[in-house]
Specification:
Elements lengths: L5 E5 L7 E8 L6 H7 L1 H11 L8 E5 L6 E10 L8 H10 L7 E5 L9 H14 L22 E5 L3 H26 L7 H9 L7 E5 L1 H7 L2 H7 L7 E8 L8 E11 L19 H15 L5 E11 L10 E4 L5 E4 L6 H16 L4 E5 L4 H6 L4 E5 L2 H14 L3 E3 L4 H4 L9 E2 L7 H10 L7 E5 L22 H11 L3
Parallel strand pairs: 1-6, 2-4, 2-5, 5-6, 9-10, 9-13, 12-16, 13-17, 14-15
Antiparallel strand pairs: 3-4, 7-8, 8-10, 11-12, 14-17
Helix pairs in contact: 1-2, 3-4, 4-5, 5-9, 8-10, 9-15, 10-14, 12-15
Length: 496
């Protein structure tokens, strides 16, 4: 794995060596602090000759002019400063990092023409650089041309008007970065390395951050009556686990926020087997559980002033003589029976018991579950937004706002009795699939039957957690989607 850059903050000062990153707005406008690096005339000439328009996150790298000890100049577009919003500073930071090459000494001059760069903006810029620096190459014995080796650790100094405040803001961003990168690592791991037991062992490492961790075994889950979750796992030689993570950052009497994640470490589809094409990507069918784990890491690292519980059901959906059959009927922990008509609709079976267990044990303020649940959500929304389903308008609105602020965007989808009746069956209380149409909605309706009256939201992240289009701050197959979103939800609305 390539090492992350070291990032520090300093006052604006002359840059004489290494690489200088300069911000340029539309019409080639730059702040005086940027122009002072090589002079206003020369900077204007570089912008004119290269026809650099300063569009948001556009970037240009050029060798530094002769007569200076600088190695290179990197110009990054900021568009119109007054219109910067959402994850724009992340994009700017990621674009800047992509152009530093093998420079080990980097100075980023964060100054805008006719606008201020806040400490929070500077922290987001630095976070964008950290997230862009991530690569998953631990299993490569040789590095290819242009790939950075483990010894490459750039030292980046971010020049800002108030470095002390920026450093303070970045402490929270750094905790979030750790959570995102943990989630990416977990999802990127191959399934032969990361099964349910290995995933549970990674969760147990959170104890170092004072997270209370409890791992339930198959024996424990049988006693609790989790027939829905265990039915998915019975075709694998690798035993299921249920991981419970508790972070106590507020008063003990405060009800916790609950986060529940689907953790299918590999999904063959079971006897309703998937087609061969793309099945290798099913190592990432635990993206929801990875996001919950990464978020718990982030909250504990930044000592969030809130009580949060994370519950993840971890299973492998495989095929052997003990595998669940289409037509089997299982009894969930809630006592409700489920006719399993498709063994590839397994994530909702895992979440059914995890949601009910979490609600029954912790009586949370609200629950949010995350799952790479359906391909149908990608048919509806593509891969730019995750599906949001909720029984509570206030929670849904807050999640939507957090998505707009972080760039991890959501779009609310419908629920209703007309969809719910599609999972009724004469043989059990419900079946695990409906008709051909509205598959993502039907899956959400299934989950809603296990949450009672508790405010709840389901995020279908199938299109955004794995294989989503790369952007300026994520070049990884696994994006870590959900960590920044839920951290923002909690930070903006629930910390004391």
């Amino acid at each position: 794995m390539s090492k992350r850059p070291s990032i520090s903050f300093a006052n604006h000062a002359a840059v004489e060596t290494g690489t200088a990153i300069l911000l340029v707005g539309t019409e080639g406008r730059a702040a005086a602090e940027a122009e002072s690096v090589v002079g206003q005339a020369l900077l204007s000439r570089i912008i004119d000759v290269s026809d650099f328009k300063g569009k948001l996150a556009a970037s240009l790298s050029t060798l530094a002019p002769s007569g200076t000890a600088l190695e290179r100049l990197v110009l990054v577009g900021i568009g119109e400063p007054a219109k910067l919003k959402g994850d724009d500073w992340l994009k700017i930071g990621g674009a800047a990092f992509s152009k530093i090459g093998k420079s080990k000494d980097v100075s980023a001059i964060l100054a805008l023409p006719d606008a201020d760069v806040s400490p929070e903006d500077a922290a987001e810029f630095a976070l964008g650089m950290l997230l862009r620096s991530y690569t998953f190459d631990k299993y490569k014995s040789k590095k290819g041309e242009g790939e950075k080796d483990d010894k490459f650790v750039p030292a980046i100094t971010v020049q800002v008007a108030d470095p002390h405040a920026a450093k303070k803001a970045f402490a929270n961003s750094l905790a979030v970065a750790d959570g995102v990168l943990l989630a990416r690592d977990l999802v990127n791991e191959p399934a032969n390395i990361l099964g349910p037991q290995e995933f549970a062992a990674r969760v147990e490492e959170l104890r170092k951050l004072d997270v209370k961790v409890e791992i339930l075994t198959e024996k424990d889950m049988k006693k609790l009556g989790m027939g829905s979750l265990l039915g998915v796992a019975q075709g694998s030689t690798r035993p299921a686990r249920l991981a419970v993570m508790e972070w106590h950052g507020a008063k003990g009497k405060d009800k916790p926020i609950a986060l529940v994640g689907k953790g299918v470490t590999f999904d063959s589809g079971g006897l309703s087997i998937k087609t061969a094409g793309g099945m290798e990507e099913m190592k990432g069918d635990m993206g929801g559980a990875a996001a919950v784990t990464g978020l718990m890491h982030a909250l504990a690292s930044r000592k969030a002033r809130v009580n949060v519980v994370g519950v993840i059901g971890i299973v492998e959906n495989m095929i052997n003589g003990d595998a669940q059959r289409p037509g089997d009927i299982v009894t969930s922990m809630s006592g409700q029976t489920i006719e399993v008509l498709n063994t590839d609709a397994e994530g909702r079976l895992v979440l059914a018991d995890a949601l009910y267990y979490c609600n029954d044990r912790f009586h949370p303020k609200f629950m949010v579950n995350l799952a790479t649940l359906t391909g149908a959500i990608m048919v509806a929304l593509g891969v730019s937004k995750a599906g949001l389903f909720s029984n509570d308008d206030t929670l849904a609105a807050r999640l939507f706002e957090a998505g707009e602020a972080t760039g991890e965007k959501l779009w609310r989808m419908p629920l209703g009795a007309e969809y719910d009746k599609l999972i009724d069956t004469k043989n059990a209380d419900m079946k695990n699939i409906g008709g051909r149409h509205g598959g993502a909605i039907i899956a959400a309706q299934f989950l809603q039957r296990f949450v009672g009256d508790t405010p709840w939201a389901h995020l279908d992240i199938a299109g955004t957690a794995i294989g989503a289009p790369v952007n300026e701050y994520s070049q990884s197959w696994a994006s870590g989607f959900g960590v920044r979103l839920l951290d923002r939800l909690i930070r903006d609305n629930f910390e004391g």
